[in-house]
Prior knowledge:
This protein has 448 residues and is mainly α. The protein is 52% helix and 6% strand.
Amino acid sequence: MSRSLLSQLLTSSPAPVRSLDTWPERVGRGSYRASIMDHTRTNNTMMSTKSLLSQLLVSASVAPPVRGLSPSRIGLALHSFTPLRCNCTLSVSEADVSDATSAPKTRKRVVSGVQPTGSVHLGNYLGAIKNWISLQDLYDTFFFIVDLHAITLPYNPPDLAKSTRSTAALYLACGVDTSKASVFVQSEVRAHVELMWLLSSATPLGWLNKMIQFKEKSRKAGDENVGVALLTYPVLMASDILLYQSDLVPVGEDQKQHLELTRDLAEKINHLYGGRKWKKLGGRGGSIFKVPEALIPPAGARIMSLTDGLSKMSKSAPSDQSRINLLDPKDVIVNKIKRCKTDSFPGLEFDNPERPECNNLLSIYQLVSGKTKEEVQLECQNMNWGAFKPILTDALIDHLNPIQVKYGEIMSDPGYLDSVLSEGAEKASEIADKTVTNLYQAMGFLRR
Length: 448
């Protein structure tokens, strides 16, 4: 329609154009089609002919000469234009639309998860879950309960399902919004295990032997008590990430080594099976996996133990005194903060390597109070521990109480929680199955 309309406009000018056979798709930086589309309206809408011709004049002026569309001809038409009512419906092809408007940007994808073993504690929350709340507004987010990782060390089977549901409920209670993020259980998406096995075939044993966490845990447990899963779980972690073509992965400092292994595996698989090799087998070619980047929060990436400022707050620590659990009652929180390890230095300060406990407790206060580091430093620099501990205790209780109330509501409605996990697993499986199918094809498996 735009072609016909322009013909009417130009043939009615003092110097009519006789033919538009050379009408270009695109010329130089300007797009004549886009100009037409930008200024044409559908049924019974007045069209700004003068504006249209002005746009064409500018486009023709910056573009190479085209027969029948010289600036002088368009200028004459502009000089003598008469208003024109368009009673037609403009039909625009997909190619026209792509010329005129750019496609909306696709959100980058973020994946993260927490093990369901033990109680979710303050380190899990401040180091991971709390950051998810802001991430879900910015990214396409997948948050799951990594129950397959929970069996790498001895565990109590009857507790696994119970703690998995509890962890999922805490995700929601902490503010994960299921309209923005997918929440599911890792084992309910079977592609995690399938991809892990495929990745294992390309993972050198030397890479796994270098993993610091394996060395630490195996040394504590002893070789006879350590299963192969503890050695190979970084490959499962790589599967968790690569399965969803993730762009970014929120990790603490202690997990950066595992992410590097994931990146190395992605690049190795892409090199071994991607590109032309994959295309020759009937695939689309190119990279099989995206190579993800680390997303490390500026604060709270690693919350330390209440009994040792040099050790990470952990579910596996033998003493419950070492951590604040998200579901700890008020009196328990009061007791744990009273008894937590401190030092004998005067005043309170961040970032003194000789005062790891002080830095840890101030960081916790900063994160649960919502204050800046500078505000906390100014408020607390002249305090002693006797004055600071009650303030920290009150801030913790005030921050955790709404989460505990919401958690109770969610756990009282098991049907709701089941529906959330089912919908999340279904959405995750759609993406995961495509990734695994592509890799099966690229690796040469017979697929029907």
